[in-house]
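Hi R.,

As promised, here are both runs. First protein below:
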Amino acid sequence: MHPFQYHEPQSLDEAVTLLTGESASAAHIIAGGSDLMDEIKEGIVSPASVVSLASVPGLAGITETDAGLRIGAMTTIADVAAHPVIRAAYTSLAEAAGGLATPQIRNVGTLGGNLNQRPRCWYYRHPLTQCLKKGGDRCFALIGNTKYLCVTGGDRCYIVHPSDTAVALSVFGASMEINGSNGSRTLPIGDFFAGPGVDVLRETVLEPGEVVSGVTLPRPADLGADGQPPLSLYLKAREREAGDFALVSVAVRLAVSGGTIRQAAVALGGVAPVPYRATQVEEYLTGNTIDSVDAAHAGTLSIPDARPMTDNGYKVVMANNLVKQGIARLLEG
């Protein structure tokens, strides 16, 4: 294990000060720790100091507000999955949280940590491979195993986004609360994640010293039609029944009124370096009546710009089928 200094700040300002007092590569945030500790033990990162958010007040918990729902970044995945309001009104988020990793990891892993985890590409995770994402000069995956890589959105680096909760949050118009030395800011979740074309070394737009403090969701009535909460679900295809990352996942949200789909949001995981919005599916569904929707046709619109590699063409078929299945299930309900 690489030695490092451990800091446990008692406030968000103190945490930001510790993070900005070090170079970006020397200080790392630790939340639940399930990802960072793996990276340290495997020799992928070697931080000089680790800044824990465990004792910072206000970063854990789920609160209902006039504007909607606020989930603190240090709220455990298990608490997100079990919360009655999330289960009833933001069902796809509860299903995504309840199906990720294992019960042990869900009990310690946090929402902020899940959203900010690093990619699971074999070549990035190998301590002896200096790939582009670790400052190297090439993507070794291109001449290696491409089974788990993206089928759209790649640019020199071909990772897939690993977070289940990010995909589910995408269909609810969630916003990210960010704090740093220059104050606080709020970003739509779609603007928070950054593909390799923006910066191959990172996956978000967080600046050095910035911390995600929470996630906010619009009120269920604002997401539905005629003030009614929307219908949503989350489906995930994986190689193992439990404790595995998504080969492909899909979150679907529909707001239906008078037999017509008034709003539709569809997001995919496991296919791109960021959560992927299936905009053509959304456009097809919106304004159509339930009886006129062809779920199979909707599925074929999932990834129109797909460019699969040698070993991952199955992801396109899988995405089409999961979208078809998700829409059919919601419409039947």
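And here is the second one, sequence first, then its structure tokens:
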Amino acid sequence: MEKDAKIYVAGHRGMVGAAIVRELRHRGYDNIITRTHRQLDLVNQQAVNKFFASEKPDYVFLAAAKVGGIVANDTAPADFLYDNMMLEMNVIRAAWRNGVRKLLFLGSSCIYPRLAPQPMPESCLLTSELEKTNEAYALAKISGLKYCEYLRRQHGADFISVMPTNLYGPGDNYHPEHSHVVPALIRRFHEAKEQGLAEVTCWGDGSPLREFLYVDDLAGMCLFLMENYSDAETVNAGTGKELTIKELTELVAETVGYTGKILWDTSRPNGTPRKLLDISKATAMGWTYQTELSDGLRLAYDDFLNNPVRAER
């Protein structure tokens, strides 16, 4: 990408979008376009078409999405399907119609089957059924990925996609009901420490295996792909390392400084038993992650402590 190219980052206030903006500025890109949700509702097709026709960006990072943890996905599947499908289709189509030179679509590892081979290669997409608790979100993300693929096949659009593993880091959502596992644990243990609670109860039995990628590492990969990759198949983004939710929980408690007892509510769902990405494709291209989980968790907790407004959401 040229340093003076006009770059639109959709979802710049979210954790991923903010990290991409930080990385762009760090590398000397200063012609960055952003819009808040109030300024531009991406679910509104007319507004999106007007924006692209007026601004004519050269490159697009599509990081906007309606996101949440197990509770949010399981209780509001219609909202997750509709909002994500609409915003993705609106942005991707408007980008193509207005001559965007390249677009990167950000998905999620939840697109892969519940019982996919481990580690999960990009080729296992749509080979068996999805995890039911986040099926709506996964279907929307698969649709966005496929739309990019079909525009490439039918019209030659240079639109690519990346599928990150579980993300965490600065700018995360710490809402007590609508957050993902790392920010949820950070908040829970921080509040337990502040309140002097003797024990904290977590969902499931702690056995599922998960992989976690620091969000700034993903941002670096996004720029790497925009500069080095052009193909229809998506690219996995991860660390190639995994740990159990129980191990993660203990690591977060240690990072926060909570020393009480950790209990497990086995009546609650575990979610997908294992979700390790095969990152050999990205590795072969020369990309690798930089931030180890223990270091990243300390940075994430610092972000939580230094952003009280975000933490109260």
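A quick note on the second one: The two ends are 36 Å apart (CA to CA). Let me know what you think.

Best,
J.
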